[in-house]
Amino acid sequence: MKKQRLKAVALTTMLSAGALMGSVAMADQTLDAVLQAGQAKTTLAQDSQKRIDRLAQETDDLAQQFKQQNKLIDDLRVFNAQMEKQVAKQLVVVQELEQSIEKVTVIERQIQPLIFRMLDGLEQFVNLDKPFSLEERQAQIAMLRANQDRADISVSEKFRQVLEAYKIESAYGSTISAYKTTLSLDGQDREVSILRVGRISLMYQTTDAQASGYWDVAQKSWVSLDSSYNAPILKGLKIARDQATKDIMTMPIQAPEAAQ
Fold it and tell me: Which residues does UniProt call coiled coil (predicted)?
């Protein structure tokens, strides 16, 4: 009887130990499942946080872009307002130009006859003036007359060219120059040097510096000078050619005549 009781206790103990071991195994499995679930939640939380951080960064970027775009829009509004003012002023200028163009058409019709009168006056002046650089000056006038028939030159340019010719003629009165040419002296052609001192005196001297003369306005011809003028005229030629320093020169000068 006692043995049966001991067997029963032993069997109960073994059953209890088996149950305990089964419980421990189940507990281990449950703990693993809990840990895995926790790890999964942690991973999900980390992924969620990364998405949140990324969305937050994208939101900040969009906010910055929005601010920049708003600033750009404000700048464009200011720029457009300024452009509108400029366009309004330019429209006024265009209207003024249109009116000026109408006036220019009238002025052009008046300028062309004026140019012809100026050319006539210039040609007459050259013919009455002392005959220095005569061929060059007459060629200039002929060129200006020919330009009046050219359609590729504007009226304003034609007028400018005539004014430039007047300036050149005016400059002759305050300059000194020397050049070589051929004159008919005593019935024979002689190579001479011409000395022009403003419009005060126009003289010549042969290349051997042995004969000199001047242009007589009254006689409209060359008149010989005595040999005492040879040295002063030679000196004047050197000064005009920058071969000598400027100095006082003795020149034949005709007394002015009253205008007719």
Answer: 45-100
Instruction: Check if the beta carbon of residue 212 is closer than 8 Å to that of residue 204.
Output: yes
Please tell me the pTM assigned to this model. Answer: 0.57
**Under 8 Å CB-to-CB from 209, ≥6 apart: which residues?**
230, 234
Query: At how many degrees (to 10) do helices 134-147 and 2-128 cross?
Result: 120
Q: Which helix (H) or strand (E) holds 122?
A: helix 2-128
Pairing of strands 221-225, 176-185: unpaired
Whether 63 is covered by a domain: the verdict is no
Contact call for residues 215 and 228 (beta carbons, < 8 A): no
Note whether 217 and 254 are within 8 A (CB): yes
Type of residue at 50: K
Domain-terminating residue out of 174, 198, 229: 174
> Edge-to-edge strands of the sheet including 201-206?
176-185, 188-197, 201-206, 212-216, 221-225
The answer on 128 and 90 residing in a single domain is yes
Inside any domain, residue 59 = no
Question: Tens digit of pLDDT for each residue in 12-40?
Answer: 555 555 555 655 566 667 767 767 776 77
Take residue 251 and report the two structure tokens written for it: 């020149």
Cα separation, 84 vs 78, in Å, equals: 10
* Inside any domain, residue 183: yes
Do 87 and 124 lie in one domain? The reply is: yes
Amino acid at 169: E
Q: From CA 249, how far away is CA 253, in angstroms rounded?
A: 11
The alpha helices in 148-189, defined as continuous H runs, are: 155-171
Domain of 144, in residue numbers: 78-174
Residues 175-198 have pLDDT tens digits of 999 999 999 988 889 999 999 999
Q: Which run of H or of E encompasses 153?
A: none
